[in-house]
Write the structure tokens for this entry.
Amino acid sequence: MINIVVLPGDGIGPEVTAEAVRCLEQLSSERDLGLHFAERDFGGVAIDRHGDPLPGETLESCRNADAVLLGAVGGDQWNDCTVRPEAGLLRLREELGLFANLRPAKVLDGLHHVSPLRADIAKDADILVVRELTGGIYFGERRAEAHFASDLCSYTRHEIERIANVAFRSAGHRRQKVTSVDKANVLATSKLWRETVTEVAKAYPDIELEHMYVDACAMALVTNPRRFDVILTENMFGDILSDELSVIAGSIGLLGSASVGSGGPGVYEPIHGSAPQLAGSNVANPAGAIASAVLMLDELGLGDSARLLSNALDLTLVEGCRTEDLGGTATCSEFGDRVRWNLAAGLVRSGAYRELIAMNRGCCG
């Protein structure tokens, strides 16, 4: 049995997570995967019920799980709380030792027009951001006074080495290129970052390494995204750049992520926020949550099932079933239903899948 803890969280989190879980339940039933799901309180809803965004029971369940599927956390109603919902997320990453965040994004054939970039720029873009997750300014010492505030950004050589190794290993399964992003012309942490990554690269002679300043990278992502394969960067830069990267695919609602460490359970979540203004209206895009489930299956060693779900998701998008954020009319639940229909129909295993992608024919909006 594979134990998966589900943390629906806040806002649209419960809606999109429910669609991903239904896809996983279908796969588990059809392929006898033995997936078992247990839902726990997390984020703002946990503050309301327990006074803590990461209650002890939730943390213990996550520690004992094989994987954690997360929705989203946060909302304006918790702005004045002593501890915000996002603090639970930072603590969960720290407690589980999740130092590497993997955020893939690609433009599917037939979906170039969905990207706000020109089709000739967006075409064939396929990028993986490898973001360091437990160091940097988000975890540094904070000071706040009436007329002064500061946030400490710090990194150790060990922290940089371990995330760099993840990036180089990932590039070995892709197109053999790592772009390390920093601000080494200004920041001391970035100077150490560049020096350390350069040293780690010597163990990967088949992988091309280039260094790029973060501002230049931000520009290149929207002018020439095909130049990138794997982008390696620190915590805050990775947070910002991966959100920018969502533009290339057409919507932040499309992208999933995996947060992994050194052998314990990983956390899998869409990169979008809780979007409380959309909560309960059944209009959120569950594609990012389903893409996160794909990453989870892959990390659990269920690669064949991951590909089945990934192909069903891609087909659903390409054939025209799209939610409002992508210019379509499908609801959150309708989109999930269509993914499961494609999964059940077996189109992903037949020539009909390739034909439908080529035809880019519509289905539900």
Q: What stands out?
A: The first helix runs from residue 13 to 31. The radius of gyration is 20 Å.
